[in-house]
Specification:
Layout: H1 10-19, H2 48-64, H3 79-91, E1 98-100, H4 104-115, E2 124-128, H5 133-145, H6 150-153, E3 154-157, E4 159-160, E5 164-165, H7 167-172, E6 178-184, H8 196-205, E7 210-213, H9 225-228, E8 232-235, E9 250-253, H10 298-314, H11 316-336, H12 342-345
Parallel strand pairs: 2-3, 2-6, 6-7, 7-8
Antiparallel strand pairs: 1-9, 4-5, 8-9
Length: 346
Amino acid sequence: MVDYNFKKSEDFALKLDLEDPLACFRRRFHIPEDVIYLDGNSLGLLSKEAEESVHRVINEWRNWGIKGWIEGSHPWFYFAETLGNLCARLVGAEPAEVVATGSTTVNIHSLVNTFYQPNESRKRILADALTFPTDIYALRSALRLRDLDPGKNLVFAPSVENRFLDEDQIVEMMDNRVALVFLPSVLYRSGQLLDMQKLTENAHKRGIPIGFDCSHSVGVVPHYFDKWRVDFALWCSYKYLNGGPGATAFLYVNKRHFDREPALAGWFGYVKEKQFDLAIEFEHSESAGGWQISSPPILSSAPLEGSLKIILEAGIDAIREKSLKLTSYLVYLIEEVLSHHPTISR
């Protein structure tokens, strides 16, 4: 725990603002008037850079029409990979391992059905009851598609006070009946950040593939997917990545799995160089791009070009440091001020 030597005075708070190395980025976002915006965990605000990238794509559509797919500074045909290259730097991955595609839930269906390969002894999916409900819906669907009973084969790590998970207990549940582990990186109910490295190492020791829904962590917490050897991950982009409402999501597949056949095949997952051969036999790209299904939604992806550039400029480590400092200061003020307030303390 870092000792920040906080003080209770307003002057000290103002001093923290003046010394904040990221303070200059505030001017580059559109912030609603007379609002203290604390909903970035649900919908990040629009940056001027994201706004500019949207206007650029609209102008390309206006001026070039169909030629926008192959012309311009960022041809639309490669846009999903271009954005994946940018986002890969936030999650500790190689460029080919990340692609902007689909939505969170569609990516769950695609990746879970790829990596969930049950057999006679291993049929279970290990998840947790505190994750966002869409994840559970998708996992139950994967089981039903294989004529397996979700009531028997979807097992949940129990929670503590309906807010937290015990990682050691999760590891204990990784037995020889489990075919896949799928967990959130952060519990949206409490903000608990799971130790993805520990969970991945223990899953692999038992021969179990593991994936994570990182919608509540990418963009605010550094990740090291390659170093941790995570098998797959996915995340939305409208929260901490500031991609806008319903913006295109991302997925990650570790390169050691590039030879796997994607469970949900589609034209944009075809080998890029051969895509216009229009062959009826599917030959998937041996990259994360192989898990693309449909043509990328260019207008919903456009804000990400600007938003990712501003995040990379700020630096994910600096963003994490500021996040920890802000949270520590809030805890300090609660303990030093509110806990001693005569009305609140009762």
